[in-house]
Structure to design on (226 residues):
């Protein structure tokens, strides 16, 4: 496994963005692990998060794009810090854009979006924290496509949970690619997380022991993508 992936896994744990236990997800599924991008709250954490996203995006999609789109709410700070990191690491100026949950009806920036306006011809990379079932794309893609004649280059999430999407067979990321015609990738997969942490001591603690590994395996028997 690449060094930056190992570092990112440990970074998620250190920031308590990745937790293990018993959680009920938005989809209603009971999960032995939970990923929450809202846990990145300090300046140094957000700076590092943006750099990990920027590296992953650069590796997968290069720099032939104009806008980073982060859906509200958690996608807003991620798109901002990734735009900053992209400028710092690669000298490429990309704009950020996010949607509003409620349309603003006053001021110079009224409308449905924050940040940059989407323009005809823009090439857009979508950013999310994690995609469990892919349901969020049902709302986000029409908004982006409806704002201007843009090309969506791809989606980048921090963690691929490797679960079935809405169709119940393929992974959410594979389903997104099939349904919308653009690539969907993650900085790391849950299989890589398990490989890196299983029965290994990290800062005096074994995060994935035999019991938790069995719970993860059982979860994937029910919800894992074929």
């Amino acid at each position: 496994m690449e060094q930056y992936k190992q570092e990112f896994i440990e970074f998620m744990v250190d920031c308590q963005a990745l937790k293990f236990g018993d959680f009920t997800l938005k989809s209603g599924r009971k999960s032995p692990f939970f990923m929450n991008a809202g846990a990145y709250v300090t300046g140094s954490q957000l700076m590092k998060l943006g750099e990990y996203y920027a590296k992953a995006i650069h590796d997968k999609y290069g720099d032939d794009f104009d806008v980073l789109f982060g859906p509200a709410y958690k996608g807003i700070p991620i798109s901002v810090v990734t735009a900053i990191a992209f400028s710092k690491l690669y000298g490429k100026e990309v704009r950020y854009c996010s949607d509003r949950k409620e349309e603003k009806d006053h001021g110079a920036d009224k409308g449905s979006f924050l940040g940059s306006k989407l323009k005809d011809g823009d090439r857009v990379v979508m950013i999310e924290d994690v995609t469990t079932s892919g349901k969020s794309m049902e709302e986000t893609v029409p908004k982006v496509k409806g704002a201007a004649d843009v090309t969506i280059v791809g989606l980048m999430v921090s963690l691929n949970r490797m679960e079935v999407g809405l169709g119940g067979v393929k992974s959410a990321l594979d389903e997104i690619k099939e349904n919308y015609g653009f690539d969907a990738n993650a900085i790391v997969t849950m299989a890589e997380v398990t490989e890196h942490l299983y029965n290994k001591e990290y800062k005096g603690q074994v995060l994935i022991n035999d019991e938790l590994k069995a719970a993860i395996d059982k979860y994937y028997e029910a919800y894992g993508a074929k």
Notes: The CA atoms of residues 199 and 209 lie 5 Å apart.
